[in-house]
Amino acid sequence: MADNTYTRFKDISISERILNTVFLLTIGLGYLAALANMYYTHQGLDGKVGLSVEDVVISYYGSTNQTRLGTAVKGIMAPNLKIKSDQDVILRWIHSGASESGYEENIAPILNRDCIMCHTPTINPSLPNLTNYEGVSEVAKPGGATIPTLIRVSHIHLFGIAFILFFIGKIFLLCEINVYVKRVAMVVPFAAMLLDVVSWFITKTIPEFAYVVVASGALMGISMGMQILLSIYQMWTPKLQDNR
Ligand code: HEC
Question: Which of 76, 77, 140, 79 minimizes the C-alpha distance to 107?
Answer without folding.
Answer: 140
